[in-house]
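Now for a chain:

_____
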Amino acid sequence: MFAQRAAFYTTSAMHQDKAVLDRLVELAHVQPADRVLDVATGTGHTAFALASQVREVIAIDVTPEMLAEGEKLKAGRGLRSAPAGMRNVEFRIADAHDLPFDVATCRRADVFAGRGASRAAPGAPAAGSSSTIAACPKTILSM
């Protein structure tokens, strides 16, 4: 299902809503040295919103077509040639349990509620404690 809709996610107004993305970045309380794990990244809009604020963003998804669209979007935005703060988004298929992180985000995977949020929460914190945000765009602006 997601493979066939990957291109839609790239241009979807809902997925690139600046107000929602800005609020998520605010709620994440990220620090410049943080390694962020963006679970169910889709085409990477959340990862891109966080990239300039942190050391590294690992954007994971289970759908290769989503990740391919994310790479295209990254190239289209010129992120490959941008300052180091924007080249730090890496797309990959991975298990959240296997990746160290300081902050984990999961913006649009509310369809995985229970499974997705609980899988990200016990991740292996890189240094100190980890924070997890699992937010649906319908509620994030009121948080």
Notes: The chain is about 30% helix and 20% strand. Residues 3-142 form a domain with the Rossmann fold fold (CATH 3.40.50.150). Residues 41 and 59 are 6 Å apart (CA to CA). The longest helix spans residues 64-76.
